[in-house]
Amino acid sequence: MEDRKLTVRAVERALDILLCFTQDNDYDLSLTEISAKIGLHKSTVHRLLTTLEEKGFLQRDEGTDKYRLGIRIWELSTHLPTLNEPAVLLLPAMERLRDRLGETVSLYLRDNLERVRIQAVQSRQAIRRVAQIGARLPLSVGASSKVLAAYAPPEVQVRLLADPAWPETVDRSQYLEQLKEITRCGYATSFEEREPGAAAVAVPIAGRAGGVVAALSLSGPVSRLSRETLEEYAVILAEAAAEMGLMMG
Length: 249
Prior knowledge:
Layout: H1 2-19, E1 29-30, H2 31-38, H3 42-54, E2 58-60, E3 66-69, H4 71-77, H5 86-89, H6 91-101, E4 104-111, E5 114-121, E6 136-138, H7 143-150, H8 154-161, H9 172-185, E7 188-191, E8 198-206, E9 212-221, H10 227-248
Antiparallel strand pairs: 1-3, 2-3, 4-5, 4-9, 5-6, 7-8, 8-9
Helix pairs in contact: 1-3, 2-3, 7-9
């Protein structure tokens, strides 16, 4: 039983190492950086890194102590099912929306108490909002976060508001009022909630069964996206989201 616990713990630690590379701009990391991120001693991390490197899940840059994701990761990704995958299925519709409105369009799914950007189509304008695919963000701030939280089951909202990571700058009672307003009007907006100078509008995408399965958002600089503009775009996004919901089945 003890050997099994040790084996499971080693697997968890190895996965924690791989997950270090999902954070923004962390394309290569040193032993010291990885050790600090997951809170393990360097000797333990080094043994795990060696195993992951031998199996091809990580590779080490020659002449340095920097590690990056290995070829095995990409081999695994090629076997992901693409049929009816929202990120693949909705991409053409997202591109048409970007071309029509001129701003960055993103697609988010809720994963527990976070949202994950699974697809993004960047604006072609010189000054634009750049959205990184795979980014994980909290549900406490941002238009897409509020949409996903507003249509989440009540128990999820309870856990969200009780989360120790809840930001002190966000008033819980006001947040709940915002969620009620979102379900009433069908969209959410944000102005510099998460990033200075950025504004966004988001709408829910409902599947044929009726439940909300994703959030569709448009974002850009506040210099181009006034409150009035976002309200106009919300209507267009809602129409696109309705079509996307039918496509997703």
